[in-house]
Write a structure and sequence with these properties.
288 residues; mainly alpha; 11 helices
Amino acid sequence: MRKTPMTNGLRAGIQRGGIELRHLLRNGKEMSGHLINVVVALLVAAYVSDDVPGTRTPMSHLVLAGFAAYLLFQIGLINFPQILVTEREEGALLRLRATPGGIPAYLVAKCLLVVVLAVGCLALLLAAAALLVDGPLPHGQGDWLTLLWVTTLGLLAVVPLGAAIGAVLPNPREALALIMLPAMGLLLTSGVVFPITSLPVPVQQVAAVFPLKWMAQGLRSALLPDAARTAEVAGSWELPMVALVLTVWAVLGFLLAVPLLRRAARRESGSRLSARHRKAEQSGALPT
């Protein structure tokens, strides 16, 4: 069978992603950062002792379901753009210009890395929560299936969008500040750490535009009993709407990611890279 450029790019991306994943697993500093997020979620859940208003569902279960969604959101939409910006500053996109199929292979590799990392952190959080703080787990085959498709669609919604954001952010020093403020705002307004019905209606409406609210709601439907639906805005899990909103964000992200990365690669040059390095050295961000 004749190999097409798409097949070659996919194979190269999978190979590259496997190499980067092995490097990540050997990097204790990076892995500890992701483990800290899991520990924080467990500590918050252990501290909360009330029930979800109007139900007998422990508030800690709602918090854990929300943090599970936020872990996926954070890795795809906060960590991923920072990785892309850092590698762009180091000249990765400049090298990709001379590589046939370099941008698609690069995207495949990064998506593989992020997806494996996100699913691993999610599995670790749910397992540790079940063992240490009596956390929630899916109760039946239908709930496990819901957990699977919400996780998949949630990652499809945020990973390409993270790639698009990483392509336009200025530099690693400003990237974190530019991403974290909106992300923390969504954390507080999307029903992740407390019932969204306790927020003003305008805030609920704004949060409903973004994927985090629907990722958290979908995961709650998989992890919490049906009685907890009464704490949702519509009094139900609204799974068709969860699927619709996440699909729209996934399509939007894919439409933006590849063109923006290609544009960023075209704009790269040796002189631009050298100028950025000199500026970083002058500011003390790099050793002279």
